[in-house]
C-alpha cells in the first residue's frame, strides 16, 4: 500500500450528513440536462468544501462532498463517481469524461487472520491540476496528483503521479508523450 495514505474512520456525523445529502441530491441526480445539470450544481454547492462554475451531468455520484474542492469551468460527465474522504481537489478548466472513478480511499489488507472489511480504511488526497482532460472510464486511485494540462487516455487506471503536460494511457497508466516535446515540436518539424 502507498505510504502517503492515512488511516480513516467514518463517524456518526458522516453518516448523518450523507443521509441528508443523498436524500436531497438523489432527487436531482438523474434529471435530464440541461436543467438537471443546474439543479445538481445547486444541491452539490451546499455540501462541497468549495466549487466554482461546474457542469454536472446526469447520474454523477459524490461521496464525502465536504472534502471536495472544484475550480472554475469544469465539466463532470455522466455516471462519474467521486469518493472524497481523503480529499479531492480539481483545478480550473478541467474536463472529466463519462463513467470515471476518483477513489481517494482504500481498504487496509495487511492482516490475513481477519476479513478485509474488519481492517479499517486508509485515504489519501487526489489532486487534478488545471487544464487536465480525463478520458472516459478512467479510474484514479488514492494519493495521486495529475499535473496540469495532462491527458489521461480512455480506460486508464492512474496509480501514480503524472507529470505536467503528459499524455498517459493504460492500466497502470504510463506516460507515453510529453505534449510540449512530442506534439509541439513535431508540429514545427
Ligand atoms: C490518449 C488519447 C488522447 C490519444 O493520445 P495520443 O498519444 O496523441 O494518441 P496516438 O493515437 O498517437 O496513440 C499513441 C499510442 O497510444 C495508444 N493509445 C492511445 N489511446 C490509448 C488508450 N486510451 N489506452 C491505451 N492505449 C492508448 C495507441 O494505440 C498508440 O499505441 P502504439 O504507439 O503502440 O501504436 C486518446 O487515445 C484517448 O484515449 N482519448 C480519450 C477519448 C475520450 O475518452 N473521450 C471522451 C471523454 S471527453
Provide structural commentary.
Strand 19 and strand 20 form a beta hairpin. This protein has a 7-stranded mixed sheet with strand order 3-6-9-14-17-19-20. Helix content is 20%, strand content 30%. The chain is globular, with a radius of gyration of 17 Å. It has one domain: 3 Solenoid (UDP N-Acetylglucosamine Acyltransferase, domain 1), CATH 2.160.10. The protein starts with 5 loop residues before the first strand and ends with a helix. The longest helix has 17 residues. The structure holds coenzyme A.
Task: Report the strand count.
Answer: 20
Shape: globular
What is the helix content?
10-25%
Strand order of the largest sheet: 3-6-9-14-17-19-20
- CATH class placement: Mainly Beta
Instruction: Say what the CATH topology is.
Output: UDP N-Acetylglucosamine Acyltransferase, domain 1
Bound heterogens, unique: coenzyme A
The major beta sheet can be summarized as: 7 strands, mixed
**SSE succession:** EHHEEEEEEEEEEEEEEEEEEEH
Kindly report the name of the CATH homologous superfamily.
Hexapeptide repeat proteins
